[in-house]
Structure formats: C-alpha cells, structure tokens
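Listing S7. Sequence submitted for prediction.
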Amino acid sequence: MTVSLRLGPLLRHVGPTTATVWVETDAPCRVRVRVDAHTTATARTFTVHGHHYAVCEIGGLSPGTASPYEVFLDGDRVWPDPTSSLPPSELRTTDPEAPTRLLYGSCRLPTGDTPEGVVDHGPDMLRATARRLAEETPEGNLLLLLIGDQVYADEVREPMREHLRRTRGTDHSSPADEVVAYSEYAELYRQAWSDPQVRWLLSTVPTLMVFDDHDVRDDWNTSAAWRRAMEERPWWPERVTHGLGAYWVYQHLGNLSPEAREKDPWWNRVCERGGDAGDVVDEFAWRAHEEPSSYRWSHRVDVGAVRVLMTDTRCARALGEDGPSGGPRSILGPEGHEWVEEHLTGGPDHVVVVSTVPVLLPPAVHHLESWNEAVCAGAWGERMRAPAERLRQALDLEHWGAFQYSFTRLARTLLEVARGERGPAPATVLLLSGDVHFSYLAQARPREGPELSSRVSQLVSSPLCNRMPSSLRRTAWLSTTWPFPPAGRLMARSARVAPPALRWALEGRPYFGNTIGEVFLRGREAEARWYHCPNGGPDAVPGVRFGTSL
C-alpha cells in the first residue's frame, strides 16, 4: 500500500545551515527530505493516537540560501505536487548579515475564500500572502509568526461539524460544536492547513507558532473562577489534555531547534516508544496543564542581530484566588517571568517580544482591565467581587492590563532594556501581538525618569481571517476616543491601581479588517506595514493598508 501525505510538509525552525521539515502521513513509514544527491535527511514516523508524524532535520545547508526540496515516503516522491501551479517549495536558511522580514498575524478561520466565507469572515490573509509571495523573490531572512488561534477548537464551521456528527454517531457526551478528542483535533488541523495555497506557504516560509485561547478553549485561563467552572464539565479533562497534546505535536515541536528538541525529555520518550505514544503525550499534556512550571512553551530565535522571544501567555498563567491571600496573578507565571528577563536584554539591534495578547491595549481598555482585576480582588469590598468576575468573563478582560503584577514587571524590564541598563540598547523594542481582531500601532515612552535610547512600539495585527462583527467595531473604536481614556484612569485610581510606568497612545485609528503585519528590519532601521485585501476573493493579492518607520 502506498503511503500518502496527510498534512505538510511544513518548514519550521531554520538556522544558517539547518532546516526542520514536519509532516503527517496516513501510515507509518520512513520519510526522506532531499535537496540534492548530497543533502538529504531521513526520519521514521512516530505515532500518537493512531496518527503518524515525522520531524526531519536537514543539515549541511549554506547560509542565506533557498534550496528546492522533495519529500519521499518509503521511496515514493509525494512532494512537490506535480499538479500545482505554485513555485517549488524551498528550504530557506538564515543569513546573519541580511535584513529580516517578520510576517505575523493571528486568529484564522479557514474559509477557502468562498463567497459566503468572504461575506462572513473577510478574505483569508494567509491565502492572499501565499499569492503575493509566489510572485516575488523575498529579500533577506523571511519568517512567518503565527501568534495564536491557528485553529478554533470551540467555534467549528460546518465541515468540522459534519465530521463530528459522522464520527461520534450516537455519542452525545461532548459538546456538539466543539472538538474534544485527539482525532478531532487532528482533523481540525487538517482542515486548517490543507488549502493548497496555505499548504504551499507553510512549506516554503519558515514558521514559528504559539497558542492563544481558541487553540484550546475560548478565554482559556482567564481566572481561577473560570478554571473552576471548566473543571465541573465532565469533558474538560479530555479536552485540555488533547488540546495541549495536539498543540505540542502540530505546532510546538517544529518551533524547537535540533539541540532543544534533543534535550526535550518528552520528545525522547516519544521517540523511544516502539508503538503508539498517545499515552506518553497524554501524560505530558495533563502534567503541563496541572503543573504549568513543568514545561516551558516560550522559545527564542535569533536571526542575526534580531532576537525574537515567543512567549506563553496562556498555559503558564498563575491565577491565584483573586484575593489578598491568593498570591499574585501572573500572565507568564513565575518561571515565565524569569525566562523573559533572562532573554530580554540589550545587545541585538532589535528585540522582538511576541505576546499573543497585546501588552499595550488602547489605554481606556487597559485601565478598565486593571480596575476590574482590583475589584475582583476586593478593592471595592467583598460584595463587588462576584459581579466584577462576571464582568471580567463577559467582556474578556484578561489581557496584560488584567495582570498588573506581570504588566508592571515587564514594563520595568522593557524600560531597563530601552535605557541600556541590561546591555547595549537596541534600536527598537517591538511588541508583536494579535487576539483583539483589530490592528494598530502604539508608541510608548516612560511616565517619568530618563528618556529611552530605544524606540518601544506595540504592533498588533489581527485577524488573519475572522473579521469582527460590525456590531462590535463601533464599541471597540469608541474605546479609543475621548473621554474614555481619562475615564478609565479615574476608574483605575478609584480601585487604588498604581499608574503604569509607561505612557502610550495609538497612532491613528485602529483598522478592523483582516490583516497580516510585516516588520522589515535592516541594520538599526525598522519599518512596519499592514497588508489587507479590501475586495477579497480567491485571486486577490494584498496591498499595504498603512505603514510607517519605527
């Protein structure tokens, strides 16, 4: 029987001389990636809950090159697709001396750019980006950062609903419109990444990923009260186990360098398992959920003089009990803060901190979140805590502003880096985020003290394909206008929240359409752009919506 590709190939972590290729196959086999007669890599598949995967590490490449490659399964060539009109897939290594382009975005529902999909959710910016890149020769180092909600496990569309109805049959123990089992997550990823244009894009552009809430469940780890409520649902243990396990297999393994993967004890246990390693992955995922400090999802990539920190702002959260004796709530968790502070230093020309949820929200929303956190903790008395918690969950008040301990600690570190107190000051300190379903730029400065040697900017690009309903756009836009920012400051002051160490404001109006962001870094210069497709459609090529030097 001939083995076939079920998903992939995906080009993941790359270095100056190495590249990682991830695939899913429909049966166990030996996977071989060939660049030429002298440059190949092979790997046996490993199995998780009946699904088969391989991670191939190709070495001996030259820095700054783009080399066409082929994929073979048990000797049969399965990639590239001979029927495709797109260019050959290439392994793109980094060049430490070249400029760097970072494409980034979040929040994508796959629609195939069908007419009804474009009407409901807008054009798919991953598909549009594939069409754009197929027509150009990328300059320098190119990385794609998918920063949350690569799949929506709790907002499945009709193709996935039909799959659930067909496979579950008369079993109605799980929610009808949400995935729970590992095999359901596998199908969700297949539907998200099987589109021919998206598949080509992911096969030829090095991609780093990190989860946000919908990869597991909406509002994941918003608060201790949210987590207690979820634990009362009988299907939740299976859901969070398989959500994290699938994330580790489909997204996280490819983030790691060869050296980091070889040091991962869970990867070694999976590789050592002769048969199906589903129980190993389940054990790992449940432990990561129950003991967030047991595994670090954050990861760092250096591309020449650019440092990229991909941070976990979901699984690692320390939720406390929202009271005086509950300990500090932390969006990174104690180990996460230590990791960020270890790597968030001077030295590079540019330091990029990727947080799926924006660090710097529109100021009015930031103050609302800080007020809400304080009231949930008892700042307005015991009777107001429960209503404040209901408000927190209803309005999704769970970004950095709602974790004041973390915001204060990160702001202090950012200021130290930008003042050159943690090594030579970089030209820019950039915060890249998504999540909020609108895009904007905010410039930050210190509230007091010496001016900064680095430019500190928050750049948000969201969504890739899940346009905010018009009923919510006006509310979101109003939050950025007067008098809401000063009103928010008064609310925070009434709950005795200390003023933030940073001041910031949005540059211009936020944009509510689907976008993909781009940061171009050359030497100590930086430029930001946001691309959109105003007319949508399956053939639309994106253009620049707005851009600026940083």
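Caption to Listing S7: primary sequence and predicted structure tokens for the chain studied. The CA atoms of residues 411 and 501 lie 7 Å apart. The first helix runs from residue 115 to 121.
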